[in-house]
Amino acid sequence: MATAPSPDSADHTPDSPDHPPAVVAVKERTEHPHAPDHPVDVAHAVPVRHPLRWLSVVVLAVLAAQLGHFLITNPNFEWGTVGAYFGAQVFGQGIATTIELTVVAMAIGTVGGVFVAVGRMSENRVLSTVCGAYVWFFRGIPVLVQLIFWYNLSALLPRISFGIPFGPEFISAETNTLISPWLAAILGLGLNEAAYMAEIVRGGLLGVDHGQTEAASALGMGRARILRRIVLPQAMRFIVPPTGSQVINMLKATSLVSVIALADLLYTAQSIYNRTFETIPLLVVACLWYLVMTSVLYVGQSFIERYYARGSSRNSPQSFWDFALFRRRTARVRKAGTEPVSETPS
After folding, report:
1. pLDDT tens sequence for the chain (346 residues)
2. Distance between CA 214 and CA 208 in Å, rounded?
C-alpha cells in the first residue's frame, strides 16, 4: 500500500535532474520569491513598447531636415567659395603648422607628464611638493594667458642668459631673438599639457595593483625596471584613452596661437577673410579641416585602445565605425577553448 511522502523527504532528494514537482516548486520559490503561484504563458507575450523613443526619433529627424535645409538654401555660406579654398595651398601650410605644433607640444607634455607624475608619487617630500605645485600652477592658469605671457616675456626679462647660478654667464641673448612666436606657442602648450598628462599618468600608475610592484621587488628588480617593465605596460590601458582625448584637445587648442600671430590653420583663415571679407566661408573651411584631422585622430585612438584593452575587459572599446554608424559596443565573450566572439545586437 502506497504511503504519502513525508514533508522531510524533500531534504533527502538525490542530485538528479528528475526532482519531484514539489521540490522544484520549493527551489523556484526560494530563488524567485516574487514568482507567481501559477505558470506564466509567454507564448503570447507582447514586447514592451517605447513610444518616447519613436517620438525622439521623429523630433531628431525634423531637426536634421531643418538643419539640412538651412545649410543648403542659405546663400551666406557661399559653398562655391568654400570649395575653392578647401584645397588651397595656403591652407596646406596652415595645416602643416597645426600638426607640427600638436606633435611637438604633445611630445613635450607626455614626456614631462611622466616625470612629473613619478615625482608626485615619490617618497621624497620636497620632490613631491614641487611636482604638485607645478601641476597646480599650470592647470590653474588658462592656456591663452600662458601663450600671451610667453610671447611678451621680453617685457619681464629683456635678456636670457645661461651659466652657473650666481656665477659667470656662458651664453646670453635677447629674449625677442630667442622667444619667437613658434617657441612661445610650444612653451605655452607643452608646459600646460605636461600638467594634465601628469595627472593622467599618475591615475594610470595608481590603477595597477600594488601587489605587482611587491612581487617584482621580491624577485630583485629595481624601481626603475619595475616601472618600465611591470607597471607602465599594465597602466597603458588606463593612460591611452584619456591621452587620445588630450591629443584631440591639443589639436583644437593650437587655434589659440592665432593671437600671437603664428600662421596656423585658424590664423590663415583670418588673414584671408580680413582681406576678402568672406568671413563665414573661410571659417567653414577651417571647421571642415579641423573635423577631418580630429576624425583621423579618432580612428587611430580607437585602434590603440582596442590593442591595449584586449583581454582586460568583457566589453571592447567602441570603434570609430561603431561611433559613426550609431552602433552599440560589441561584447567580446571568451568561451572555454574558443577565441573571443563578437556579438552585434540586431
Report:
1. 445 555 444 444 444 445 555 544 445 555 555 555 667 667 777 788 888 889 999 999 999 999 999 999 999 999 999 999 998 888 999 999 999 999 999 999 999 999 999 899 888 999 999 999 999 999 999 999 999 999 999 899 888 888 787 777 788 888 888 889 999 999 999 999 999 999 999 998 888 888 888 888 888 888 888 888 888 888 888 888 889 899 999 999 999 999 998 999 999 999 999 999 999 999 999 999 999 999 999 988 888 878 776 655 545 555 555 655 555 554 444 444 444 444 444 3
2. 12
**What is the longest distance spanned by two Cα atoms in the chain?**
116
> Which amino acid, 131?
C
- In the chain, the N- to C-terminal Cα span, in Å, equals 59
Q: Which amino acid is at 187?
A: L
Burial tier of 346 (Cβ tally within 10 Å: 0-12, 13-18, 19+): exposed
DSSP 83-100: HHHHT-HHHHHHHHHHHH
Range list of H helices, 265-318: 265-276, 279-308
**Distance between CA atoms of residues 133 and 156, nearest Å:** 22
- Is the distance from CB of 97 to CB of 293 less than 8 angstroms? no
Q: Do residues 247 and 301 make contact, with C-beta atoms less than 8 angstroms apart?
A: yes
Name every residue whose Cβ is closer than 8 Å to that of residue 201 and which is 6 or more positions away in sequence: 113, 114, 117, 235, 239
